[in-house]
Amino acid sequence: MWQAKIVVTYKPGILNPEAKIIQQALGNLGYQNITQLETGRYFQIQYSDSLDRSQVEALTHELGDKILSNPVIQKYDFELVEVQP
Amino acid sequence: MKFGVVVFPGSNCDHDTYYVIKKVLGGEVFYVWHKETSLRIFDVLILPGGFSYGDYLRAGAVARFSPVMKEVVAFARNGGLVLGICNGFQILLETGLLPGALIPNVGMRFLCCSVHLKVVTSDSNFTRQYQPGQVLKMPIAHYAGNYYADDDTLQRLQDEDRIAFQYCSADGEVSSKGNPNGSKLNIAGIFNEYRNVLGLMPHPERASESILSSTDGLLIFKSLLEKN
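^ Those are the sequences you sent over. The predicted structure of the assembly is below.
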């Protein structure tokens, strides 16, 4: 059966206050070599084994566009992995 | 004028809003459970503040799929008046009835305080009883109130006079100093293109009686109630 690992992040150019503060905190701790830091949201979805890869791919896109991300400010990437039931 | 206050699981300003319309203004108002699908009797629908569905996923993201929201969208498209306060504003943005999005406050803190607001326009059924440029005091209580829209959208909002309220200093100066959460153009509230939908982050229902230190929010409800 297929599993989707989906990561939702802010689109480039949109200020992510959380990422900015984490990066600042790391700088304060002495980690000066970090030039960029992004945060995001991780979703892991298991599909029923009646779905094949192309169906799972289409469904994951639908979930990403419709619910898991807000396309005004966010984008999403995902990978599909085959897992044992 | 019949008002409906939509109640989602997790709404917590529904009673305050109902109280202001009914007890402070003597208006006709009903609660509307989020599973309701018949909204025809209403003239105004209010999506109140709170944490609908625990604000899981994103503020307003799950409420958007409530049965009532399909009807709220149809109601708005038919010209019905819709007011979204705080979490209600977040829901209206997620639904697409208003443009843009609300992201976490700059500073990543939940802000609970009074702010100053400038009335940008009185050209709407919600703001008719204010004077343009008038400075108001109202409470805010939110974590994700940082209004974002792309430059084209911001330009359009300005060109079409669709910014209702902007955060400002006590003397009415709109600058980064009076901006509590990082909102683009200090935006605290906006209209849709037909001006029958208003979303705002501050809480007018918490500023409608002198005992609560401000009555500056009352005119939104009065403007609606005394329409026609």
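Chain A has two helices and three strands. The helical segments of chain A are 17-28, 53-68.

Shout if you want it in another format.
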